[in-house]
Amino acid sequence: MTRWLVTGAAGMLGQDLTALLAAEDGEQLIPLTRAELDITDPAAVRASLDSYQPDVVVNCAAWTAVDEAEAQEQAAIQVNGKAVALLADACAGRGVTLVQLSTDYVFDGTAREPYREDHPAAPRTAYGRTKLAGERAVLAALPGTGYVVRTAWLYGAQGKSFVATMLGRARTASPVRVVDDQRGQPTWTADVARQVIALVSSAAAPGIYHATSSGQVTWFGLAREIFGLLGADPSRVRPIPSSAMPRPAPRPAYSVLGHGAWAAPGIRPIGEWRTALHRAFPALLAAHQAGAAAGQPSG
Ligand SMILES: NC(=O)c1ccc[n+]([C@@H]2O[C@H](COP(=O)([O-])OP(=O)(O)OC[C@H]3O[C@@H](n4cnc5c(N)ncnc54)[C@H](OP(=O)(O)O)[C@@H]3O)[C@@H](O)[C@H]2O)c1
Predict the structure, then answer these.
(1) 73-96: per-residue pLDDT in tens?
(2) Is the CB of 69 under 6 A from ligand 1?
């Protein structure tokens, strides 16, 4: 039996991870939302570890507002860097395994082939720099029991995502303009949660793992796939270049990650993005329709 403590448990990934762990036989789960544990509060972090005595902490808490981080890097690093260092030190002092979620934004996004786990990091955004600081803190403090799990292009039944936005847009009649010069791997949060559980359960070697779907597609291609799944006309989705949609934080042109590290512990990578999207779709649609019925804004 493993005692799991999940921080950021009300986030998009946190919700799927806690649901999966709750359904596992013999696992003990302590899901803590931001209101229950603010990871930037050192005394609260130490008190939680002392009172709950977890075997594993999965840190799903993060500053995820990529554009806002450009103007507020000091605030973002409190959560993504300094708090993670604190958590890592607290885990190290208590023999606790730590899984830190991270991002494709640690890379520069200019590659032409999938980024290996050991490819040099070169973030081009404030968000990427803060997440890299968190990665480094975990690997330094926990050389024997620290995992960094990088993911990207997440969608889930709960929370904001590109997929959720497109489910809303498909209901309208207007054309939808979507960038066609950024490539990545759309990834279901439930699949990431399964990889995290498999990683810890297999006692895999510590280090960096990439939990993304395989294959690659642009946001435009993904939008068309979603429209097709809904029975909406995919030709309503029109391609545009990133230059037509400038944002404070530059988006990586190439966010495709390699999955070589899963071979050593014998864990299957997530698999092809389209297959995963089709598997996830009934749950995504049900959550979207429930939200629409409750009058929530889509996307
Ligand atoms: N979403 C993506 O496409 C994506 C891509 C690559 C990597 N990732 C990484 O994957 C992980 C999970 O992301 P997600 O999409 O599930 O993010 P999310 O939905 O934004 O969830 C993050 C959670 O962390 C909480 N949080 C923020 N500051 C906190 C603090 N100081 N103490 C405790 N909790 C705090 C947030 O609470 P509030 O809502 O109350 O602020 C929220 O519940 C993150 O590490 C993220 O960097 C995500």
Answers:
(1) 999 999 999 999 999 999 999 999
(2) no
Tens digits of per-residue pLDDT, 224-234?
A: 999 999 999 99
Is the model's pTM score more than 0.85?
Answer: yes
Cα of 79 from ligand 1 centre, angstroms = 10
Among protein residues, the one whose CA lies closest to atom 38 of ligand 1: 34
Q: Is the CB of 8 under 6 A from ligand 1?
A: yes
200 within 8 A of 242, measured Cβ to Cβ: no
Give start and end residues of each alpha helix (H) in the chain: 12-23, 42-52, 66-71, 73-77, 83-94, 126-141, 162-170, 189-201, 219-230, 273-293
CA distance 248 to 150: 23
Per-residue pLDDT averaged across 25-31, rounded? 93
Catalytic residue, from 115, 127, 147, 254: name it: 127
Q: What is the pLDDT of residues 118-128, one digit of tens each?
A: 999 999 999 99
Of 32, 60, 82, 115, best ligand 1 pocket probe by most atoms within 8 Å of the beta carbon: 60
Question: Does the beta carbon of 151 lie inside 6 Å of ligand 1?
Answer: yes
Strand pairing report for 3-7 and 207-210: unpaired
